[in-house]
Amino acid sequence: MNCKAFVEEQVEQIRQTVGDGQAINALSGGVDSSLVTVLGHRALGTRLRTVFIDNALMREGEPQRVVRMFAGMKIPVELVDAREEFLAALAGVTDPEEKRQAITHTFYATVFGRLVKESGARFLLHGTILTDIEETVAGIKRQHNILSQLGIDTNAAYGYAVVEPLATLRKDGVREVCRFLKLPAEIADRMPFPGPALATRIVGEVTRARLATVRQATAIVEQELAGCGAFQYLAVLLNDRATGIRQNKREFGQILVVRCVESTDAREAAVTELPWPKLQRVSQRIVTEVPDVSRCLYDLTPKPPATIEYI
Ligand code: XMP
User: Fold this and answer.
1) Residue 202: which of 90, 89, 281 has the closest Cα?
2) In testing the pocket of ligand 1, which one of 132, 257, 265 has its CB within 8 Å of the most ligand atoms?
3) What's the domain count of the chain?
4) Dihedrals phi, psi of 193, to nearest 5 degrees
5) Residue 304 is assigned to a structural domain of this protein
6) Which residue's alpha carbon is nearest to atom 18 within ligand 1?
7) Do 37 and 183 fall within a single domain?
8) Single pTM value for the model
9) What pLDDT does 130 receive?
10) Which of 304, 209, 311 is closest to 257 using CA atoms?
């Protein structure tokens, strides 16, 4: 790919589309939204307002870390606390597509609708990539960030137009452009993390308590597998319990899954052959450190037939 030409074209395109208006974008800290933020700021400067929406579904310390990382690049990011709104929208929802729908609606209609109205922005810059579009259109999974490709007229529905500068790239292409722009390795090499965040790793209802469980397990998996070179590693909370034994007492505890996969573009993935001692250590830490969890599994399923996330 000619990264230089790509950057020039997209910056120009953003300028032309937004004209002399205001735009807004949501940064999650993932490689896609980070690249859009950098391209958007190159194109629009202070006419782009970048927000980080705390949806209660983020990893440990993530909102503060992302704001700090961009402050280091002189890009101001506003932290918007929408935790209660997302938790309320997810209460009682167990169907995976309904969960995604609840998150999408809260994000685009409720929270963004309000921010856009307040700021007078007419455009939302979005980090949609080609794989997101393909999987949604193929009906595999409704990706959080797909709207117009599903026939949603965002102007009519939400009051703003969506601009998608990365819609022709896959994950490897996004990383290539990040490296070309000399963005910190923390961004360019960052492991993918889905927009609906930890909700994609909770089977069944998303509650504060269940989020705390998966968040703690995620931190352990990320600490232990950092540097293993895999494409993505994560923890998933199942919606079931199994009999266990702790301190000579029966315990009907929760079940966590560790997933670690190799991939280049997330369309297909192979399971990483992690060394046995590493797996044992992760499992040991999860069942001793995470309250109410008494069983840990390693997922051996490639994509396809499984997807990487569980929801
Ligand atoms: P799946 O689970 O579909 O995931 O095999 C493929 C890749 O995409 C990420 N993913 C998402 N990213 N919004 C995103 O921005 C989403 O709704 C979403 N769902 C999955 C996932 O982490 C993996 O890297």
Assistant:
1) 90
2) 132
3) 2
4) -140, 125
5) no
6) 194
7) yes
8) 0.89
9) 92
10) 311
- Does the CB atom of residue 267 touch ligand 1 within 6 A? no
56-64-169 Cα angle (round to 5): 80
DSSP conformational letter for 269: B
Tell me the average pLDDT across 269-279. 98
Domain-located, residue 235: yes
Residues 39, 170, single domain; the answer is yes
Q: For the segment 182-230, what is each residue's pLDDT rounded down to a tens digit?
A: 999 999 999 989 989 999 999 999 999 999 999 999 999 999 999 999 9
Residue 220 lies in a domain: yes
Co-location of 154 and 271 in the same domain: no
- If we measure between CA atoms, which residue out of 230, 127, 227 comes closest to residue 174? 127
Contact 21, 14 (CB under 8 A): no
Phi and psi at 246, nearest 5°, equal -140, 130
**Nearest CA among 135, 141, 178 for reference residue 33:** 178
The residue range of the domain holding 278 is: 202-298
Q: pLDDT digit string (tens) for 203-214?
A: 999 999 999 999
- For the record, the structure tokens of 115 come out as 């921010």
Ligand 1 pocket check for 29: Cβ under 6 Å: no
Burial 144-165 (b: 16+ CB within 10 A, else e): bbbbbbeeeebeeebebbbbbb
The long-range contacts involving 68-71, CB below 8 angstroms and separated by at least 24 positions, are 69/29, 69/184, 69/186, 69/187, 70/27, 70/34, 70/37
| Statement to judge: residues 181 and 207 lie in one domain | no
| Closest residue by CA, ligand 1 atom 11 | 194
